[in-house]
Write a structure and sequence with these properties.
The protein is mostly helical. It has one domain. The protein is built from six helices and no strands. Helix 2 packs antiparallel against helix 3. The longest helix has 15 residues. It is globular, with a radius of gyration of 14 Å. It starts with a helix and ends in a 5-residue tail after the last helix. About 15% of the residues are buried. The C terminus is likely disordered.
Length: about 90
């Protein structure tokens, strides 16, 4: 988030949001809710930069309608249910 805040006025907000989104998906910081949190924060980054997409576009709706394309775009192939065990970190 420091990188995002530092570069918000220096890098195109769409590129910056894309970088954040990709990195957050790769890091996968939570046991559950990574995708939802990443999509929400991506939208918030764009909103902070003055691109309020809440009224015209929903990452969540797009994701729900294009799950396989989403995973291909972020570097994972297959249907969500094929990847479910890969994406969930073991507890303990």
């Amino acid at each position: 988030m420091r990188f995002i805040n530092k570069n918000l006025c220096k890098i195109d907000p769409i590129v910056l949001a894309g970088l954040f989104h990709r990195q957050c998906v790769i890091v996968h910081p939570f046991i559950d809710g990574n995708g939802r949190t990443t999509r929400l924060l991506t939208t918030a980054i764009l909103g902070k930069a003055g691109l309020d997409l809440f009224e015209i576009f929903s990452f969540e709706n797009y994701y729900n309608q294009n799950i396989t394309r989403y995973f291909k775009a972020v570097g994972l192939e297959g249907d969500y249910y094929d990847l479910e065990n890969v994406l969930i970190l073991p507890s303990g």
